Amino acid sequence: MGRLPPGVDGALAMGMGHVILKEYFADRQVEFFVDYNRRYTDLPFLVSLEEREDGSYAAGKFLVAGDLPADMVPEATSENAMWKPVVLDGRTDAVAVPRGSVGFRYGDEGLGQWNLDLGEIEPALSLLDTREDEVLVRFPRFDAPDGTVAFETRGVPTRRVGDRVVTTVLDLLLAHYGVARDGLPGAWPSGFGDATVPATPAWASEITGVPAEQITRLAREWAQNAIDTEGRGMILMGAGTNHWFHSDQIYRAMLLLTTITGCQGRNGGGWAHYVGQEKIRPIMGFQHLAFALDWHRPPRHMNQTAYWYVNTSQYRYDTFTADELDAGTGIFAGQGVMDLLAQSVRLGWTPSYPTFNRSSLTLADDAAAAGLEPAAYIVEQLKAGALKFAVEDPEAPENHPRVLSLWRSNLLGSSAKGNEYFLKHLLGTDHAVTAAEAPPDKRPAGIEWPEQAAEAKLDLLTTIDFRMTSSTLFSDVVLPAATWYEKHDLSTTDMHPFVHSFTPAIAPPWQARTDWGIWKAIAKKFSKLAVDHLGTRRDVVAKPLWHDTPEALATVHGVVKDWRTGEVEPVPGKTLPVLAVAERNYPATFEKMTSIGPLMESVGMLTKGVPYDVKREMKLLRRRNGVTKSGVGAGQPRLRSDIHMADAILHLSATTNGHLSTHGFKNVEKRTGTQLHDLAAEHEGKQITFADTQVAPVPVITSPEWSGSESGGRRYSPFTINIERLKPFHTLTGRQQFYLDHDWVIGMGESLPVHRPPLNMTTLFGEAPVGQQAQQGGQRAVSVRYLTPHNKWSIHSEYQDNLFMLSLSRGGQTVWMSDIDADKVGIKDNDWIEMVNRNGVVAARAIVSHRMPEGTVYMHHAQDRLVDVPLTETTKRRGGIHNSLTRIMIKPTHIIGGYAQLAYFFNYIGPTGNNRDEVTMIRRRANQDVSY
Amino acid sequence: MKVMAQMAMVMNLDKCIGCHTCSVTCKQAWTNRSGMEYVWFNNVETRPGLGYPRSYENQDEWKGGWIRKADGRITLRAGGRFRKLATIFSNPKMPSLQDYYEPWTYDYDVLLRAPAQKDFPVARPYSIISGKPMNVSWSANWDDDLGGSKEHAVKDEMLKGIEDKVRFEFEQTFMFYLPRICEHCLNPSCAASCPSGAIYKRSEDGIVLVDQERCRGWRMCISGCPYKKVYFNHKTGKAEKCTFCYPRIEVGLPTVCSETCVGRLRYIGLVLYDADQVLEAASVENDKDLYAAQRACFLDPADPAVRKAAREAGIPQDWIRAAQRSPVWKLINTYQVALPLHPEYRTLPMVWYIPPLSPVVDVIRDTGHDAEDAGNLFAAIEALRIPVEYLANLFTAGEVAPVEAVLRKLAAMRSYMRERTLGREPGPAIAEAVGMTEEDLYEMFRLLAIAKYADRYVIPPAHAEQAHALEEIATDCALDYSGGPGMGGSGPVGEGSGALTPVAVENFRMLTQRQTAESLVSGGSKKGRVNLLNWDGTGMPDGLFPDGTSAARDGKAE
């Protein structure tokens, strides 16, 4: 492999995609690929083309049954007809509505219909041979030197359906990837060697430095291997291609390779990315108990990226408009990213907290005083402008977060992108931010903008941890916690097929307590204090439109309509967040925490759209854990101890309870009309208990909570149930989707995977371009791309500052750099260096190696600031951490909601914590004799 | 024929990810104590690189191992017994602490107890040796992942003579990890160097140990060992080394480094050898013949004559069976993919390595051909990203042919299994091209790729009837060792071998003493220190709960 500069992996994948699309889809057809894509991807689905003023067309929305006259498709008048995309049936040459799209997932008519069984339909992947016409479609490219968008047109075969001009996703994809076919007009490349048109190997080679021949060969090997092995091709990756502002595009370009070649949903094939977002296998029990859904629904979830972007005032430093950020596509002209976030919040797409500029408790009281139900009251107040979302005025004191509890989190040593902004605006302590705030003409018009951003918003910071971290250094209160070997707990992730236990080898030493013990103690005291201070209150919860619920059908065709501008009425759960009310009996908090609540029996459980009746499990838990004697939890199963909790999770999750899994699959069957429950049948009588996990790690049971089958002892691989059992994916089409037709996605030019280079930090923030040298602190400094990959032997900050590991490395914070860059500015191995950009300052040691490419430095992720961090020459204050040089940037498409798979759920969708597009100046410290 | 059994190890370098778990668990188990801070019985070095201690392979400097004299006999490179006695009080050929590294700790207490002040507190490094603040400038693994490569990796001894083949440029970068423990050599130069006869090779399983009672701290073993795997405990003044975790081995468990290896790259098993041939093998004229010569010492445990001789030599039947099942034997002899580390030192080391293949495949991909095709793989081995010559300098005294043969076998295994996995009929051609059978290729694949625990570790437990002769389950008179009141006499590999129980006895006594003593071996009070490792599980270990006056609370670095 040749040289691959940072952040351009998507271009490499597109170059490979070009070869595969040309040689295995355009020049010839491979039965295995055709079959797979007809059934499991959106390639055959029809897309409407919108005519533009210049006569060219733009790819528009999926054609759905509801768009068509009833005499053309009988489903036109069916339930959810606007949510049933259509295909062209190759057998009848007529439009047909395949089952399995999201329209079949909800409502009575769809019962037994939500599956991928095509029946008699044979979807046509392309219209080339049956076309009535061909038109030029406009495709965006972002590879210009200045990073702005450019468009060019290429032809696609079309047909007329009703009053619409349509084509298929595959036809669009081929044109978008520059794969020429006879008879189609447009700007096509002359061959693989033509670098002027995306996405030829030569084009990809110019961007990536990987020779075009290698890209071609790799693509052929990939495709041939997929044919030879029936889809056992896997892309395995760490965080390297993630954490970019445009990671989603990089991912989509790579996923296209695995998906069009039938590698998804295969053991030994697919996509193995080891990056964040880990979930736990017994997810249903965990989610219901962690968020107290046994007592109160809905929960109050939040995505952290947007939360910190707002509450650490990082939005103030967006010295550009959303349109500049988006390379000039025009979709967001005149708006700031904050405007888009506020819109997303008020349309119920994404959660926001604090939610309103009035306490959620006060709101319920105010509604009562006004004689209205809270939802109606809030709608009225919002319409009248008497109530605002907090996100529209984040600097106002009533909208500040006040209390923050960190638990199992090293926010200020590890995860906080824009660490220095946290220090400045959240904590109000010393920081190294020198960035300029947005000038008046770049400020979001819809957001209150006081001249001075607030500092020290937070009143109280507590941390529960078992080791000293950067976060504990900053905390008002530190509660020492038990380690893994001092407590009972479960250990499980979605990446491992076992549930493990923690069992104490010793009691927690000194003042340490178990996590369970700590929270119980807090709950007990809180409950006592609540008698005087809080009592029982009604609480308004504004919940976003959730994925895997009918709320995801809020935005027909992904057309954005805002009640604020009067396009639509504000309707909770449709064009507003769901507005729910919960009764909070605060003095009963401890009692509720230590008993499983009644909602489990009265309402049941729901995970990923599958309902479960758990009366049997509750009976079992009453026997196993015992019954609470008195208080609000009287008669309920006890949750007195951590072991009680572990057993409750294991009983209330289908992955660890064979009966529940079988039961859940039977419920899915009602919707799919296909057989699934046999997947769990072999374990129907199996209940994994905490005691079992203490004996040995226990393999989990195939469950509707997940998409992979482990029946018969096979290993988990995602989507094998979808592929083998024709269970739809949870998307608009029910298939794996290449095409996204939401207004914002189309507007950003990303309806199909596209190469988008790293953000230009010079035009956005005025940072020096990579390679530029300047004098800084009396020393020669050079601008380099700043990456923060994972250290090979730490898990975030954990283990990094262990004495043994430090003795096996360099003893403190280090930055890897190329010998070429080091030579430019006179840095030697182990020299003290300083890195400075607008976000902050780092003082660390250089590791100089020829293993690093010129122009890029690494500061391994999450090196805490606890050991050997001197005062900086720049600020004369303590040096920062890796995230002192980064900040949060929000990509607008990540806050889309209320639209099929683009709908919020906790830990499933939201703005990414991207931090790789950053640059910094690096220099040797003038004085190597550092002080502390 | 004098049949002896050797417990040996093979490491498959293709699988080492350089995580250092082996180093840390070994240190935690064996050397996490005063006087041993700088000691890593197990270390993992990035190659090319200097290793630990720095440049230990430069025998011109350190004079480790054996050399062959003009008369065909071998002698210690550092000189014979006479020379040793002459220089006994000033042993010059020993790495300094700086060549290992100056161990340090941090004033962690500052983080807890710093008063309100202008800047956030930070813990600074303090030398454990001097107790003074220090600038960390070398460590046990300083050049990890080619860190500082232009200053350090370029000085790798193994690059000598092949400088033209290695360029330290980004596009040509290569590296791999080399985990190292004591080699438990058949012809240990450490033992031969010891003026006190304190180092001995156990007759039962060949593990090389230091008798702590007899060690007088002359440190000749440190010079004598060309791998620099004997260390000086600067508190006790005695030599210590990797024990092959004999207390575990004796009950059938793998060493700690193996047990905890994340990559599962280590194999442990017995090799039978003819002790009568050891000296001859170590004395062959040409360095490049040493690999073959050492292999010639090994005895085929399936051979009826060997089995008979082994039984007559007192090797139990289940040990002979274990030798037949030994993965080490298979990798060294049946498949011939494992190679010794630095045979040219003539110590006949018994920790062998399968050289890394992966970069070969990368090179083939670069050439534009199917990376799994056998023909392409064979052709490309000469174009290795890791030069074959470099591997040969490590494993075959510079002889390229055996390394190439190994890499070709590993390549053939991949191609062959690829065909099988795809349901195609691979035919015998691939196997024949590397002088193997299809069955062997398949079995080698099972051993290397499936690598189940029970196949990686074939360790027959020690025999109860030998218990009195083994340390951990000693039933014999603790004083019955050579030179002791019991006067057990010399073992079979000469004066410095085969002593009986002292290590376990020493350890037991030391542990007992340490647990009951008020003071530390290193001096100072035991208050505030917790040693769970040596805690027998009853009562409460001393120092588990600080009494509020401990040194740790005074903000002093240990």
Helix-strand blueprint:
The complex is a heterodimer of chains A (about 950) and B (about 550).
Chain A: H1 9-26, H2 31-40, E1 46-51, E2 57-62, E3 87-89, E4 94-96, E5 133-141, E6 150-161, E7 164-168, H3 169-176, H4 201-208, H5 212-229, E8 234-237, H6 247-260, E9 270-273, H7 283-290, H8 304-311, H9 322-325, H10 337-346, H11 360-369, H12 374-384, E10 403-407, H13 411-415, H14 419-427, E11 460-465, H15 470-474, E12 477-480, E13 489-491, E14 498-502, H16 515-533, E15 536-543, E16 578-585, H17 589-593, H18 599-602, E17 605-607, E18 610-612, H19 615-625, H20 642-651, H21 658-672, H22 678-681, H23 690-695, E19 698-699, H24 720-725, H25 743-747, H26 761-765, E20 773-776, E21 779-787, H27 803-807, E22 814-818, H28 819-824, E23 832-837, E24 840-849, E25 856-858, E26 919-924
Parallel strand pairs in A: 8-9, 10-11, 11-12, 21-25, 22-24
Antiparallel strand pairs in A: 1-2, 1-7, 3-4, 5-6, 6-7, 13-14, 14-19, 15-16, 17-18, 20-21, 21-26, 23-24, 23-26
Helix pairs in contact in A: 1-4, 1-5, 1-6, 4-5, 7-20, 11-12, 19-20
Chain B: E1 3-12, H1 21-31, E2 43-47, H2 59-62, E3 66-68, E4 74-76, H3 81-86, H4 97-100, E5 104-106, H5 109-113, E6 125-127, E7 176-180, H6 189-193, E8 199-201, E9 208-210, H7 220-224, E10 230-233, E11 238-241, H8 246-249, H9 256-259, E12 266-274, H10 278-282, H11 290-297, E13 298-299, H12 304-312, H13 317-325, H14 327-334, E14 339-340, E15 351-354, H15 358-367, H16 374-380, H17 388-395, H18 400-421, H19 429-433, H20 438-450, H21 453-456, H22 502-516
Helix pairs in contact in B: 17-18, 18-20
